[in-house]
Design goal:
- Keywords: ATP-binding, Kinase, Nucleotide-binding, Serine/threonine-protein kinase, Transferase.
- This protein is α+β, with helices and mostly antiparallel strands.
- Helices cover about 30% and strands about 15% of the residues.
- It has ten helices and nine strands.
- Helix 5 packs antiparallel against helix 7 and helix 7 packs antiparallel against helix 9.
């Protein structure tokens, strides 16, 4: 089996399972607790009333999504994840809306964020970084083979399952891009130079972000950092990297191949018209990417998870009342003025 995953057979099995049930609704679940919060909503741990499995339900306030001009990103997230199925991507089962909120039902990934483990350990060994990078590379290759740019790679968006394997999550910035796109979005520390210049960019920005991720996992901080955004962007554009003393020259060579403003020279995955394949770099010589794809390589860290609904690997949040499904009572009577903006739901 090739490490480049087309996913057709697996996707058919997934769609078979997904289409067996009627469209889901909030009443099908017990909302148990908050797993994370964002600008427009929350992610909840929920248990199905039918199969008793636990799921993560992402909720978004429609008014806030519209006010913050995130309508396209939100519709993109559902339509992209709906068609994707891969071992290292979070699985979306369904989406729906009520008068005030949007809901996306996804597999619950109980190991928490890679970010949490990185902060606990301060930095990872080269062996651990190689493992996480290899799984992320296969996820990015799959997305790019489907002409999807991810645009938000960072430790906070990499979840670990109960065995310690990665799952990319949060596809709010993902977009189908056959050629070029121009929107500046993502996390400042991870932005590629061509995105900052606003002159159009391609899927290659994800490989720059991979370089930032690898450096951060090895060193414990991103290669470009500054409290002043202008200074931060200047460092990125100039590619001014603060290399620690004694940095391994092999991994430095790899990172210089990823963190290069010259897009034509940048490492990236296969199926990219003869560009340098990152998987062929000497730093990955010990990696069998077919075994990685089959999840037969032992993860460096196995989360302490007692059962499929264990939330010990997630931070605790102050819980609020969940007015999902309820109208905001007002005079005149409340009307859902935003429903038509979210046809994907």
């Amino acid at each position: 089996m090739s490490a480049i995953f087309s996913g057709s057979a697996a996707r058919r099995r997934y769609w078979g399972k997904r289409n067996k049930h009627r469209k889901l609704r909030l009443d099908d679940f017990h909302i148990k607790q908050t797993l994370g919060t964002g600008a427009c909503g929350r992610v909840h741990l929920a248990q199905s009333k039918f199969n008793k499995k636990h799921y993560a339900i992402k909720t978004l306030n429609k008014h806030e999504v519209v006010r913050k001009k995130q309508v396209d990103h939100t519709n993109n997230e559902f339509t992209i994840l709906r068609d994707m199925y891969h071992p290292f991507l979070v699985t979306l089962w369904d989406a729906f809306q009520d008068d005030c909120h949007l809901f996306m039902v996804m597999d619950y990934v109980p190991g928490g964020e890679l970010f949490r483990e990185l902060r606990r350990q301060k930095k990872f060994s080269q062996e651990a970084v190689r493992f996480y990078a290899a799984e992320v590379i296969l996820a990015l290759e799959y997305l790019h083979a489907n002409e999807i740019i991810y645009r938000d790679l960072k430790p906070e968006n990499i979840l670990l399952d109960e065995r310690g394997h990665v799952k990319l999550t949060d596809f709010g910035f993902a977009k189908r891009v056959p050629t070029y796109t121009y929107t500046v979005c993502g996390t400042p520390d991870y932005l590629a130079p061509e995105m900052i210049r606003s002159q159009g960019y391609t899927l290659a920005v994800d490989w720059w972000s991979l370089g930032v991720l690898i450096y951060e996992m090895l060193v414990g901080k991103p290669p470009f950092a500054d409290t002043n955004p202008v200074n931060l962007y200047e460092k990125i554009l100039d590619c001014r990297i603060d290399w620690p003393d004694g940095f391994d020259p092999v991994i430095m060579d790899l990172l210089l191949g990823l963190l290069t403003p010259n897009v034509a020279q940048r490492y990236r995955g296969t199926n990219n018209d003869g560009y340098r394949d990152i998987k062929q770099h000497p730093w990955f010589a010990s990696i069998d990417f077919d075994l990685v794809f089959r999840r037969q390589v032992m993860p460096p860290y196995i989360p302490s998870v007692m059962n499929d609904g264990d939330s010990a690997c997630f931070a605790k949040y102050k819980e609020i009342g969940h007015p999902y499904g309820a109208h905001h009572h007002s005079s005149p009577p409340f009307t859902d003025q935003h429903r038509s903006k979210f046809p994907a739901f």
